[in-house]
Amino acid sequence: MANRVRVRLAPSPTGPLHVGRARTALFNWLFARHNGGVFVLRIEDTDRQRSTEANLVSILDSLRWLGLDWDEGPDIGGPYGPYFQMQRLETYRQAAERLLANGAAYKCYCSVPELEAMRQEAKAAKVAFRYPGRCLRLTREQIAQFEAEGRRPVIRFIVPKEGTTTFRDMIHGDITVNNSELDDLVIVKSDGIPTYNFAAVIDDTTMEMTHVIRGDDHIANTPKQIHVYRALGYTPPEFGHLPMILGLDRAKLSSRHGAAAVTDFAAMGYLPEAMMNYLALLGWSYDDKREFFSREELIKYFDISRVGKTGAAFSMQKLEWMNGAYVRGLSPDALVVRALPFLQEAGLVSASPPPSELAYVRQVMPLVHERLKRLAEVAELTDFFFKEQLEYDGALLVGKGMTADQSRLALEAAQAAVASVDVFNVPSLEAAIRPQAERLGLSTGQLFGTIRVAVTGRTVAPPLFETMAVLGRERCARRIQQALTKLPSGIPR
RNA sequence: GGCGCAUUCGUCUAGAGGCCUAGGACACCUCCCUUUCAAGGAGGAGACCAUCGGUUCGAAUCCGAUAUGCGCUACCA
User: Given A82, A152, A235, A326, which is the most exposed site by the fewest CB atoms within 10 A?
Assistant: First the structure.
């Protein structure tokens, strides 16, 4: 490759980072890293109404969280800066002047209401609206008249009305449109700020982008932009249009589907490496078998020619499954480190836990390790290890096919075992309790179930003896004692 | 309405003319393991490859039309 690959992500800070854009970011980043190229971040902040600093910060955080890094960008600068469009206004102004000077663009004084009226007319007549070029050839007098009225002109770009425009898309192949379909687009708004289709062309050229990889909602914009490139004497980059990410209902993915911003996924306890892996599979595949890839493997194997053309529905279920697999793959220590913030968030562990508390967490975590799918679930799964007081319905102590009396006997047996066992560990607890089932005429499931409820306050929990061993003798004794008082009086259920 | 893009199990996908009576994964069902829940193991069901027509000895793969979905049609990006 003669020229070093340069690609970019150009987010607009009008909201948090959406997973669709995160996937676009990922593919650009993978393309750059795979080819030893440069990945740059440019902020398209020309939408003055909706752009905020907070959104920018959030977007950068989300990108970093995902594990992406950039070589040039708003926070680190670079040789092609500035990386905010609002700081590049002079560049756009000069380009617009050039187009005006060589007759490729013209000032248009039509007001928004006037334009809207024209659109309505076109719609009523059932014909496609094309800007009629009313301001294309204004006389000096007319211009003076408009200026006197205080009208601020926009700058419109003249697109050729004859012929066709074709470009080769890296993933769709050749795409052709009739120029007669294209409209004279406004490139500079009346406040002097350039529109997307203009600013992007100039930035991509001056920043020397070799490839523009973006969502396929931009396919229709591309021919227009190509004309702008040509009018400016620029050579367009290569284009690659990625399929969209949809919700399971095939509608655009939004918070209605549960989550759409990457911050949402982080908060729910998805691992960034799982997120990256899953996102990579949305629209790209390696072969017909393999679907787990580390960050390095993705870089190594990513090939834009293996990106599909069809919109992909985002499956929360599959993400969850994949996340669970990644969680299970964590070392015990890594799991503690990752889960701790969620335990603290839930108020189960103190903000700066002393060694003893940390040691306890380290004992608890292995018991839920393979049951965890999302880190945020850790609180729900382990709270009884940390809470002093258990809240539950005493009726749960009486299992299926049992009488309250049998439950009482079971609890008393457990109480005796807890008190008498020499060493409070799994083997001795099991040796002392398991035989009781037969003696009491209960199945082990019934016996253990009753004790489980007593000790954890729930019917679903990690294996009983391991749980008890971690809880410790005192806590178990206290909880069994309490369970005895919660037992429903008499009467089988 | 016009134009563009897309169309393989519910979902993500493999498939680049014969290897496909279409393979894998998630979800689903059954069984095994088992102390509940997970995890794991073994099976199963699930796609007439949107439809119709054409090219070809042969098509999921090539061509055309139709249908459907999505996108663009902004002084938003």
Answer: A235
Helix (H) or strand (E) holding A39: strand A38-41
Strand B and A392 CB separated by under 7 Å: no
pLDDT in tens, A66-94: 999 999 999 999 999 899 999 999 999 99
Looking at the structure, do residues A139 and A35 belong to the same domain, yes or no? Answer: no
CB within 7 A of strand B (chain A, 326-345): 328
Strand order in the sheet with A211-215: A173-178, A164-169, A238-242, A211-215
Asked, for residue A303, whether it belongs to a domain, the answer is: yes
CATH for A401 = 1.10.10.350
Same domain, A213 and A126: yes
How far is residue A464's CA from residue A397's CA, in Å, rounded to a whole number?
Answer: 14
Which domain, by its residues, includes A479?
394-486
A454/B70 CA-to-C1' distance in Å: 55
A116 and A213 belong to one structural domain: yes
A161 touches strand B (CB under 7 A): no
Q: Are residues A237 and A96 in the same domain?
A: yes
pTM for the model: 0.93
Whether A306 and A344 map to the same domain: the answer is: no
Q: Are residues A154 and A237 in the same domain?
A: yes
Q: How far is the CA of A172 from the C1' of B67 (A)?
A: 22
Protein-covered nucleotides on strand B (Cβ within 7 A): 1-8, 10-16, 23-27, 35-40, 69-77
Report CA(A286)–C1'(B23) in Å, whole number. 14
Other Cβ atoms closer than 10 A to A144: 11
Tokens at residue A261, please?
Answer: 């911003």
A296 touches strand B (CB under 7 A): no
Please state whether beta strands A164-169 and A173-178 pair in parallel, antiparallel, or not at all (unpaired): antiparallel
